């Protein structure tokens, strides 16, 4: 069962829900995607019911919606502990439309007011107003100043106190709400009413800022969700009608108007479609798609009405898979994130014990003043809040994943980002990865008329489905040669193709098949040997049993391959090609591109090579074919080219949607930027706590400065992480 959760302002909110739901009997797993505000549960309905799950989540103060068939069905909503006023506003308006009267309007406004007051901004403004009133009254009547400030403190404390009770009820004993409640109540008992009211006001300001920062962090994923149209225009005969996207089936024909987005993956049915795919791939230039070309869901149609045949099931188009990958990526936490989770689990209870010792040991054993040391202990409680530390990793990772997805780089988790930052070696498959994946004619040597030889060779090869034959035909078409018909065509498997063209006997075959003819022409023989040394495949053409010339073919490297490899080497990444092709071809390509080569490898041989490379450090594997899937899975990080097979994409940790090699250096830089950002965040969170811990023990700072430091650290960490949404990895 999946649910949408409203009111989560930070990953610690998500963790508190996960832990509370996990404690229910019959729950096998509870996983929260903070980026998508989604709770996914696996449970045994004989031991726990949906109502039990709802009671826990709403009991903690969060809003809850059940996801039904890809839509959202209203289950129940409640004011939330972290106070997402926007989510609450949506909750209050989720009722069916009907005629309204004055009473309805009044009720609606009343609900709006309740939502606002229960939100973080409303609570902050109420506490601020109460504090301002207390300050003014204290100026006119100083005798009762403590009463006024105590009343102002209660305005801020009451909602926090009730949230604390909810948290404790569901096993959340050491959250920031608990720490703030203890600190504020303690300050009031010590007679520090002004400080208590100021502390609570600053805390509520921090919550409001955290909410805004968290909403900004989720913006990248929200933008992807907004690309998915809710309705599609289904073509039926000569008419079309609007239907829900969920009702589309494979094979349906749909039309999309200019300025609208494609609601499903499809095949273009028009002569020409102009699509803007920038939101999916980051490529700003619109793409021209012809009949039978594939198009991705979320693409923007430009210029004219275009029809498509649907090729994806409901809920499983390209955009759905991108969003699902981002959601699943939060389960693949970086090692540093797992460490911080474990650290924070014992850190807060340990700090509460330390605070207790600070409060009692000096007065009991060193004749310290009880009030002074209890005050320091309360300040220490606030400093011990781990919010900034806990949010430091997920905020950075979420921002980085969202920014990468907008550029067409699908990363399946923070673990992949961390490993990328430590990459030492990048191994490449050859065909379709470093090369274009299709052989091309590179050299033509003829004894007579070049175009005539090409024309006759293409005529014989046109009926074959062999990749080399198709390359010869493509070359002839590119030369705008009129390819004649062939008769009496025959094939000698693996050796030659023969046929009659205009009364002339034409044969196209391997150098081995025509070895005798080549040996009779020493000059051409030497040229052929030179081509073979370059890793090219050579086919021989004879006309009427006389040697007419040769065609050299090779799967040419991508235009961007050499520059990409140079960039990787400048980043300190060792590059190596692992290919099943023959050693001569592999080494020739390696020399041209400037990387080491291991050739003649079977899939299991690639695994052995990756294991050997692992001895030097983290290994990244880049491939696109079914035979690459095992290597992609075994490597520390597997990267699948976007044009690759579904098996490769599934096995990989990262997918390049644009199928561009130049995205690889950007990925390495993205990983390093993310880890640098995380290290900055952790240092900032722990550094500020360390500084204020010392200043508190020496009596230099008090409660309100502790709250300011804690809130400030959380906001600074979040804002620093948000830089990854804007920073370029190019």
TrEMBL record:
InterPro entries: ATPase_P-typ_cyto_dom_N, ATPase_P-typ_P_site, ATPase_P-typ_TM_dom_sf, ATPase_P-typ_transduc_dom_A_sf, ATPase_P-type_domA, Cation_Transport_ATPase_IB, HAD-like_sf, HAD_sf. Gene3D superfamilies: 3.30.70.100, Calcium-transporting ATPase, cytoplasmic domain N, Calcium-transporting ATPase, cytoplasmic transduction domain A, HAD superfamily/HAD-like. Its main location: membrane. It is a multi-pass membrane protein. PROSITE patterns: ATPASE_E1_E2 (PS00154), COF_2 (PS01229), HMA_1 (PS01047), HMA_2 (PS50846). Residues 1-65 form the HMA domain. It is an enzyme of class 7 (translocase). Its EC number is 7.2.2.12. It is found in: Cell membrane. One of its GO terms (cellular component) is plasma membrane. The keyword Transmembrane applies. The chain crosses the membrane at residues 124-141, 147-166, 178-205, 346-366, 378-397, 678-698. GO terms for molecular function: ATP binding; ATP hydrolysis activity; cadmium ion transmembrane transporter activity; metal ion binding; P-type zinc transporter activity. It catalyses: Zn(2+)(in) + ATP + H2O = Zn(2+)(out) + ADP + phosphate + H(+). The keyword Cell membrane applies. Pfam families: E1-E2_ATPase, HMA, Hydrolase. Keywords: ATP-binding, Cell membrane, Membrane, Metal-binding, Nucleotide-binding, Phosphoprotein, Translocase, Transmembrane, Transmembrane helix. Belongs to the cation transport ATPase (P-type) (TC 3.A.3) family. Type IB subfamily. NCBIfam families: ATPase-IB_hvy (TIGR01525), ATPase_P-type (TIGR01494). This is P-type Zn(2+) transporter.
